[in-house]
Amino acid sequence: MKKYNFLAVILLGITLIGCGDKNKGENSLFTIDDSAFPAHFTQKEPLTIGILNPNSKEIDSVAYFINDLRVGSTKGAKDFRIELLDQKLGYQYLKATVYFGGDSSDATKRIELVSDVEPKALKFKVVNTYPHDTKAFTEGLEFHNGVLFESTGQKGDSYFRSVDYKTGKVIKQVDLPKEYFGEGITFINGKIFQLSWQEKTGFIYDANTLKLEKTFTYDKEIEGWGMTNDGKYIYRSDGTEKIWKMDPNTQKLIDYVNVYSGSSKIKAINELEYINGKFYVNVWQKDAIAVVNPASGAVEGILNMSGLRKKLGPSITMEDVLNGIAYNPTTKTIFVTGKNWDKMFEITVSE
Length: 351
Hints:
Elements: H1 3-12, E1 15-16, E2 31-33, E3 41-42, E4 47-52, E5 59-66, E6 69-75, E7 80-82, E8 90-100, E9 103-114, E10 120-131, E11 138-144, E12 147-152, E13 159-164, E14 169-175, E15 182-188, E16 191-196, E17 201-206, E18 212-217, E19 227-229, E20 234-237, E21 242-246, E22 253-258, E23 260-261, E24 264-265, E25 269-275, E26 278-283, E27 288-292, E28 299-304, E29 322-328, E30 333-338, E31 343-350
Parallel strand pairs: 3-9, 10-28
Antiparallel strand pairs: 1-24, 2-4, 4-7, 5-6, 5-8, 8-9, 10-31, 11-12, 12-13, 13-14, 15-16, 16-17, 17-18, 19-20, 20-21, 21-22, 23-24, 25-26, 26-27, 27-28, 29-30, 30-31
């Protein structure tokens, strides 16, 4: 077994994805010839498409599409080559529109594009340990102007608050209405954005006064989980393998990446933190942090955090999962904790 698969199994508990659906979209006139297709493609592998013509129709031309975007055409039934470098990881939908005798017919096929990056095994060192409120069901963690902010979940007991991380003392707290289950937070453009879990509602506060300025409704049928930003855009997780890109000015979702470790799709992505050009992500119910390339979704590094459990008190159970990543730009260290944990850890990371 390759090292990255070994790491992924330990760290992320992923489900291995099989090859594309070879029967999807086939019709009686023409089909896409997948006899030479591998189980998975990578971005570096070009794709050559051929057309099977069991009824020996006289084909005039074929137009080719990937994810409904036309990528070229051929005269007759010549094979066509598609480069995959610019495609997202995940499922890709191929279509060949075959023109014959004044008529046309579509042949379709689904393939899966996976990562060819071998994640590095990263290690961490605990440099400080601080108290953490065991009643805090942690959903988000972020530093702003040197102050640590934490958001929590649970209906009837969701809030975000500023905290003196050295003592655990609460500085200021903002409670969500009882009907909302709070999720991740992030600071951008002088505002605090906060998500709710299944209520499809987000909140925008003034970053200085913490006063609520606006609520917004999700424009996709997704859940709210973790959140971070790169200074220009907000990034959100939804409990699947997707990390969504959101315009903070319009609150509209404009793009996404699928997260893969090798040929394995990483689901249940939770808390996010943008650190030095990479996403650091918690995976729900796993004592692990994955380092993800924001452009491709490929996992580039893996942190096995299971050793932290030995440092927690006896009341902390396996149900109290790791969740919460905050980068402190002043100390250039990372703070991590978990839901209802009694401690928060300041760590450094290296290969």
